[in-house]
Design goal:
The structure is a homodimer of 229-residue chains. Chain A is built from eleven helices and no strands. Helix content of chain A is 66%, strand content 0%. Chain A binds a DNA duplex (30 and 30 nucleotides) through helix 1 and helix 3.
Chain lengths: 229, 229
Amino acid sequence: MSARERRQVASDAGLSKKRVVVEAVRLADREGVGELSMRQLARALGAGAMSLYYYVASKEDLLDAMIDFVFEEIELPPEETDWQSAMRRRAVSARQVLARHPWAIGLMESRTSPGPANLRHREAVTACLRRAGFTVMMATHANWLLDSYVYGFALQESSLPFDTADEFADIAEGVFLPQLPPDEFPYLNESAAVLAAAGYDPAEEFTFGLDLVLAALEPLRAPHVSLHP
Amino acid sequence: MSARERRQVASDAGLSKKRVVVEAVRLADREGVGELSMRQLARALGAGAMSLYYYVASKEDLLDAMIDFVFEEIELPPEETDWQSAMRRRAVSARQVLARHPWAIGLMESRTSPGPANLRHREAVTACLRRAGFTVMMATHANWLLDSYVYGFALQESSLPFDTADEFADIAEGVFLPQLPPDEFPYLNESAAVLAAAGYDPAEEFTFGLDLVLAALEPLRAPHVSLHP
DNA sequence: CCGTACTTCGTACGCTGTACCAATAGTAGT
DNA sequence: ACTACTATTGGTACAGCGTACGAAGTACGG
């Protein structure tokens, strides 16, 4: 066992790629990814800035590893249930994870090659859809549609200034309505007023669209040939 | 007419916020938003770096303006057609625009307050949906769902290494398949093989999911009370 | 012609990522 | 115990970043 391998296992002292990535994610969550610099990260780890480069090829490499670390947190679709429940679980998990690490969404745009956790996730999702009776083509469609919805929702949610229904009501009345001239934006005013009064929760919004999409995908499944072996 | 106002109108010489933003967008399109610096931008405009700060409060302010400039390029939903056609047109337009300016997607995460073009767009979309018979709540749901799909699709598309079906076939066979061990990723291998053989075009993928979502939203419209005045 | 406001930008400061290389620490072989 | 070696750490330096500050240049109303 080399010194390097020991360090990879040790958790309380010594650096390792894992420890570097974990601390980087923590920093990005707390301060935003824009505030994440190699020097700050090194300081948080009690190390010199250049020490990080023993575990990470470059900052780009670190960002890639951070993204894949985030993907590892997303639940894989469970295998024992029907496809809709499985897809719902993993979509809900993905939204939660991306809400915890909003910087990850913005980072996805600039990086091209998916990491290992990303690939494992895609494989598991595709497997679930194929076993549920979708053809290769339809499984691809479903995959794109579901991922687009999840990522896009997380992206929109990350730029909202509120998290809960209560916060929304406050902000809608205190910020939105005064900023929107009623003659120029009559419909947005109507929406803000109605939603503030009725209560509006982003989490419910997510499941609404998700269920609608899942229901719309159901008829695209091919007949279950697996039942006639 | 002040000197400032003249400059805002002039297009061939002299700076203006518009000229600064337009050149910044051009630079970001060409080199990526990571390569966009105030000094480079100033050089492209034949000006000194600090001159830009007369038209722009900070780089953050510039990025906000760039995003809103991108939103201005997206077609508003036309008023003379049915709601599905209107929504389809503006969604297709949004995808095209975001594909032209992929950096805009990654930027949306970090900024909170929508610009004027963004607000005008939201107002027009909400108006279209309300006139089509959706309640405030259902129009909100439809808005979230459609925007999530468009943004999420653009986000995924921006991280694809290919743009057309032909490029995909090349890359699938040359990059994906060799990188994916068939025993670990059987379903992804199957997908890559089938899609490479059958042909796969991201633009068709987009309209497939879009039409599915639009069809799923149709039954959520309330009965047309406007027909019984 | 002058005062005043508008527009430009040179300099400087503290930050960034990281190339390069020296220093140290821990292990294996003798 | 001594050497040879590799694994690990980080100090210094450099080019480039955003931008605060303040000084120029320019145009116009009086």
